[in-house]
Amino acid sequence: MExxxxxxxxxxxxxxxxxxxxxxxxxxxxxEWTLKKIVRSNTSGFKLLLLHVQVQDxxxxxxxxxxxxxxxxxxxxxxxxxxxxLHLLEFFVKKCHEIGVGCxxxxxxxDPTEVICHEVRRLRPDFLVVGSRGLGPFQKVFVGTVSxxxxxxxxxxxxxxxxxxxxxxxxxxxx
Amino acid sequence: MExxxxxxxxxxxxxxxxxxxxxxxxxxxxxEWTLKKIVRSNTSGFKLLLLHVQVQDxxxxxxxxxxxxxxxxxxxxxxxxxxxxLHLLEFFVKKCHEIGVGCxxxxxxxDPTEVICHEVRRLRPDFLVVGSRGLGPFQKVFVGTVSxxxxxxxxxxxxxxxxxxxxxxxxxxxx
Lengths: 175, 175
Prior knowledge:
Two copies of one chain form a homodimer. The first copy, chain A, is of the alpha/beta class. Chain A has a single domain, classed as Rossmann fold, CATH 3.40.50.620. Chain A has six helices and five strands. A five-stranded parallel β-sheet of chain A has the order 3-2-1-4-5, sandwiched between helices. Chain A starts with 5 loop residues before the first strand and ends in a 13-residue tail after the last strand.
């Protein structure tokens, strides 16, 4: 009876808080908000497209103590990054399976703003959900915000979900 | 079993195209998009809060041929405006009843940007849907956009639904 499921792209990323691949506070919030407020009990009516963009520079310098002395060290780093990305997606995919909502998940490398807008053009989701740290104008000068860029440039409707004040870490630029 | 319905505020306004109180192309689009892509068959899971903001100056000069020669003329004008607003809301409320989704609708007067943000603070919807003409930066200089203001200032998540190119009237500032 129902038409094709509504396709919701959700951009997810790793937390900046720990060395371990936990989801960022804001992307976890955006994901949970989507399930609670949009999908609700209508699990067959929606399909989540979970996009994780790995920022290469940041990942490369994640372990400041590492010494890169041979091509093997770089290969190991790449494998470690890949494992972290997969671990992150597993977290979201597992949640989708638990509640029975269809999903697809994939990893891309590059600048999150460009990659997200590119993937929107490629996959034409019905809308895009992005988390936001909810930074003030002064804080934004230093860190930039992926969500604002997407609202302006993504070729589909975009909904930005802000972290609540209680969820914010001590340094609000962290996530 | 399910928690409280998701409360979706939808800002609706009259078309600039006719003297008759038709809904604007973009607010109709935003409303229909919400039903098709978000509510879907889960009509008990959502409640629509339909807000119509009447812009007083525009309404007052709607009939350029009218002559206001007595207090009665102004009273009649106010009654005509009220009737137009009610007629507009009736269109949306009727659609909600046809498909069985709960709704509330009301009219406020004033500047749409301020009134919408005020009503968001007052009623705390889960998110706000606003239509947009999808104007380019050059066109926007002259007409301003309610949707951009709401995205920045409303104290809840906001999703902007653009008119498609085929739906746009000859003058894209019209709606």
